[in-house]
Amino acid sequence: MYMAAMGKKRKKLLHSALWAKKNTMNKDGSTTQGIGQPSIVHALIIIFLEFFAWGLLTSPVLNILHETFGDHTFLMNGLIQGVKGILSFLSAPLIGALSDVWGRKSFLLLSVFFTCAPIPLMRISPWWYFAMLSMSGVFAVTFSIIFAYVADITEEQDRSAAYGLVSATFAASLVISPAVGSYVGRTYGDNLVIALSSAIALLDVLFILVAVPESLPEKIRPASWGASISWEQADPFASLRKVGQDQLVLLICITVFLSYLPEAGQYTCIFLYLKEVMGFDEEGVAKYIALVGVLSVFAQTQLLSGLMKMLGNKNTIMVGLGFQIFQLAWYGFGTQTWMMWVAGVMAALSSINYPCMSSIVSNNADADQQGVVQGIITGIRGLCNGLGPALFGFIFFVFDVDLNKFDSPTAAANKTLADPLAQSIIQGPPFVFGAILVILALLVAFFIPEHSSKYDHSSRSSAKRTLMVMEGGEEPLLQVDSDNP
Question: What is the pTM for the complete model shown?
Answer without folding.
Answer: 0.69
